[in-house]
Amino acid sequence: MQSLQKILPKYTIALGVIFIATVVFLMMRGNVVHVDAVTVKGMELVQAVYATGYVDADVMADLRTEISATVRTVAFREGERVKKGERILQFDDQQLLFLMREAEAALSGQQSAVNDAALKLQRSRNLFSQGAVSRQDLDDAENIYTQAERQLQQRRMQFESARDDLKRLFVEAPIDGVLAFQDARAGDYLASSTLVATVVDTSSYILNVEIDELDVPKLKPGQAATIAFDALPEDRFSALVERIVPQTDTVTKTSRVYLALQEPVQGIQIGMTATANIIYSTIEGALLVPKTAVFEEQKHQYVWKIIDGRLKKQQVTPGASDLTYFEITGGLSGGDLVVLNPEERFRDGMEAEINDVRGGAASGLSGS
């Protein structure tokens, strides 16, 4: 029993040491955080407005019929190239010739009626001066002559219209281009003002894009843009802001902007979908930090800076930004290491074990 009493204190002391060591280990372990970090570097910050739209053309013409007639021949189909003045289709002239001859005959007959009414009017005037006819007879002769003259004018206009229709037997291309639309076949009867063709000058392709009304003040003619087409996903093309339409849609709250391609693009067509990043600002040598690294407390912005393997909460002053990065104008220097994804449990002085270090921001386009 005496031996047991001598041994127990030794065991008690050993267990106490182990317990204290365990507590210290757990406390130290709780002050170690594993983080991903990023090195602050001076890079180029490109700010751009993102826009979506489609391929349009500045030079194109819709062709409509000027007469009602039957199509005799069609010389060009959709997709074919035409030159200015070439006849795309011709109407049958038989019916028009018949109408013109009919109008000519009516005009000739009415001219005879006018001549006859003029002779009768002259005779009535002579007889009236001799007292052989009454004033009513003279008035009747004058009315007949006046009505005949009016009908003659109508017949003349009908004849001239029928004659002019014969000059409109052809639908001609007003510009050089490609037929993007042609909806007529031989034998079709087309009413006047029917849309039969659209000619597009493919060298005048332009991009018609929509931007948010909030971005309108950022843009001006001449700014550069990078273009991507859904049909050509691997390629990028250069364009310039050509004009900004001074009107915002009251429903969509967007404004229209036209972008001029800087080189011909093979394989695009009117209506194809396009996206654009329109560059409105470029800052050289900006200290960039990913937006995920910045957090806010009491209306101030901070990052967790890593110094000698430990965390330090550092207040920063953000400047310009894009979708991914902040420019830091105060609080950091090139080469500083900051935590990429801060956590609420972080405290000053915590030991930071870095899982991965990113080499800083990559220069590129990010739409606003």
Q: How is this structure best summarized?
A:
The protein is built from three helices and 22 strands. With 368 residues, the protein is an alpha+beta fold. The strands form four sheets. A six-stranded antiparallel beta barrel has the order 2-11-14-13-12-15.
What are the main properties of this structure?
Helix Hairpins, 3 domains, 368 residues, Elongation Factor Tu (Ef-tu), domain 3, disordered C terminus, elongated, 6-stranded antiparallel barrel
Word description of this protein:
The two termini are 83 Å apart. It is elongated, with a radius of gyration of 44 Å. The chain is α+β, with helices and mostly antiparallel strands and 368 residues long. The strands form four sheets. Strands 2-11-14-13-12-15 form a six-stranded antiparallel β-barrel. Strands 3-10-8-5 form a four-stranded antiparallel sheet, with no helix packed on it. It folds into three domains: 1-30; 34-59 and 202-368, Elongation Factor Tu (Ef-tu), domain 3, CATH 2.40.30; 62-182, Helix Hairpins (Orthogonal Bundle), CATH 1.10.287. Helix 2 runs antiparallel to helix 3. It has helices spanning 2-30, 94-129, 135-165, and strands at 32-39, 41-57, 60-64, 69-74, 81-82, 87-91, 170-172, 177-182, 189-190, 195-200, 205-212, 224-229, 232-248, 254-261, 273-290, 295-297, 300-307, 310-321, 325-330, 337-339, 351-358, 365-367.
